[in-house]
Amino acid sequence: MSEGTYRPEAAQAALADVEAVGGRVRRHTRGYGVFVLALAAFFPLVLLFCGFAPLSGAVLGAVSGVAGALVGIGSGLAATRIRAFPRRYGPRYLLAFLTSAALYAVVLILGGYLFEDVAAWWIGGAVATALPLTVLGVSVLRSGGARS
After folding, report:
1. Residue 101's closest CA among 46, 62, 139, 29?
2. What is the 3-state secondary structure (H, E, C) of 31-47?
3. Residue 148 needs a FRET pair 20 to 30 A away by CA distance; which of 28, 88, 102, 108 works?
């Protein structure tokens, strides 16, 4: 073939390959979004348990420590299983995760000392803790693997 000519079959095959790869990336990106939403649900559940369970501070600290270890292990396992991440994955995930973790710590510490029996504190804190990760998870799922 001379320069500047192309074979339509080769172009169609290349486009089919690109579509197959795009489908896999979208599936893996959705998996990442679901993982982030599961994490967004986990933070407030543990926080509500700590706020409403009539347990000692040592037991509540142990529960929070185990929950933190599970989050760390789950994050590591999810990162190894998910092969495609959305653009700017690292900074977006870290910002959402660290914001949720900081809110969790503030609600837990202040609630343990100042608002021990105030249900509104624990419920509001649980909602606030879930918001950053929920926003990230929903934005990932809404983008559907598009380059955001």
Report:
1. 46
2. HHHHHHHHHHHHHHHHH
3. 102
Cα 97 from Cα 115, distance rounded (Å): 24
pLDDT tens, residue by residue, 130-141: 999 999 888 878
Residue owning tokens 């809404």: 142
Cβ-based neighbour number of residue 139 at 10 Å: 15
Question: Residue by residue, what is the 3-state secondary structure of 70-125?
Answer: HHHHHHHHHHHHCCCCCCCHHHHHHHHHHHHHHHHHHHHHHHHHCCCCCHHHHHHH
pLDDT tens-place string over residues 20-52 = 666 666 666 667 777 788 888 888 888 888 788
Instruction: Report the C-alpha gap between 105 and 125 in whole angstroms.
Output: 10
Tell me what pLDDT residue 67 has. 74
Separation between Cα atoms, residue 117 and residue 51, nearest integer Å: 8
d(CA 146, CA 148): 6
Q: How far apart are CA 29 and CA 140, in angstroms?
A: 7
**CA of residue 44 relative to chain centroid, distance:** 13
Is pTM beyond 0.85? Reply is: no
117 vs 82, residue with greater confidence: 117
